Amino acid sequence: MSMRTNKEISGRMPGGYPPGIHADTRPEPEGDMNDGLELEESLFEGELIPVVSVPIVKLPEQAKEYPPKIELDCTVPEIHRQSTLDLSVPILRLRPGSITMSKVVLDDHIHSISKEDVHFYVPVVSLQQSAPVLHNTWTECASNVQEHWVTTYATLREQTSADSEDTEETPETTSPDSPSGGGAGIPEEPPDVMQYLFGIKNDDLSTRRPKIILYKERPEDNTLASFETCCLRIYREQVGGDPRLQPVSRLDETIVTYLDKWADPGRHLITLDLDYFSQEEAKKWFGPKNLRDFLRRAIAADYGFIIFKSRREDLFENCRLLVQERLASEIGHLLDIHVVKPNSLSIDKKRWLSSIFWGNCARVKEEPPVIAHYRDGGSRGTHISSYDLDVVFNKKCRAEYEKVFTSFTRGENRLYQIVTKKRSRESDEHYLMKCYVVRYLSEKYQLKTITEIRKAIHTEKPQESSSSPELFIPDVFDKKGNGYYEIETLFAGDRNGKELINHLSETVLKYELDRNKPARVYVVIDNTAAIRHMSDLLWLEEMFCDLEGVQVKFLTFDIASKGLIPIQEVNQKMQKVMCDKALRSSIFGKV
Fold first, then answer.
1. Inter-residue contact 276 to 378 (CB < 8 Å)
2. What is the pTM of this model?
């Protein structure tokens, strides 16, 4: 092995790295290794620098093309189940059960409950077809209940007329703060007054479509005017405004010309009285084409009523077949057609219902009948009796009700018009109801002068709230009794386009003031709306019981005492009329 100098090595290894890898096959120089050592010693003056010879190996070019290959054994061994899987279920051993006896001793401090006679009224429905088998009346008593506590309808029919005389007593009026009581045996579901009087549900008359009414008048009663009054009231709740009643009792060229203009039930409540049309007039105008065009104009309205009335069975049936079966299928629009047949009521029930409907006014007594003739040549006339519903409901009781509210524009009651502020765009009915509440509070506190009333009773005056920076304005604020009165007619205009439940809820919820100082809120609703919406009002009053800091009560008018009455008591009066035996026999028929 030869030894090379640093210069030779650096010449072959520039930068300290070999320029290339190669194999050196040259023979080593002959001579002894000591010769080279001596030479180096002479060059560096005795300093010995060791030199290392690095062999250079040159690999073949084929080795660069094949990278190293690594193989993994990915064989997954198969696992064989050696034995079945057994589930171990623990077994619970129950100990014998033990019974603990508790003994309660009642002392003599528990109040005794006196026994009272409770009557269970069983509703009786008149069947369309007679039953083939007669059943005997029987009574089944529960255990520990005396037999005379349960009364069947057969027993009620055998009672004397003493019960009806009891119902004639004038009901007492309670103050808004007094709790209302309940009657024994009276169902809780509020009555549907429209169905009770006229045989049509209140909800069917409240849908937002024009109504075509086929009215079958009773032969022995006049009820159409009372029904028209209810329809006008329902219209104001649905649409607002003041529609005109347009009765038509004859058909000539002038009437037919204007009838096309009246066809819009959104402005008129049109009543076609078929009983007073001559045969020639009816045949000339009541053809399918004329009536089809008339109904086509009517359905363009958003809401309204067109009434076809007759007490003759043949005229009514012909009109029903033409309108309900033929034209309803020929006209391409949905027609809201209703057949209305009023119920037969006794005079006592008519007086009771009319009194409750119109502010619990005094029930009218019997008067001599009046004969009236329509202007159709004098050959025909109609007999109007004091027993008719139109006389009792639509003339006597309604007139007494309206007389009370119109009194605030004349006489001594004008004092309450002075102290009662009227806001802009307020209906006359709403304002007069507000005057009624001011009079009620003034007489309650015996306030006589304008100064006394204005100090104790505020109308349309902004009130501050400790929990809200915004001011709220009650209709009437009883400063002396710390009560807020909100007046509601439920007319569409007074509701500002809001639905009934939402409007009443918004009215009440604005009184969530200071929880440390509860607010007493009285919502005063006129009697007609209170009776028609009794179910919704009772439900709302129950829901508002959960409000913190607000005590809510719905009231209506009791004009006989110039006071207010809770709607629960009005509901009880209606239920009492419905459950009376005389009313059952008149509506449901004798069994």
1. no
2. 0.65
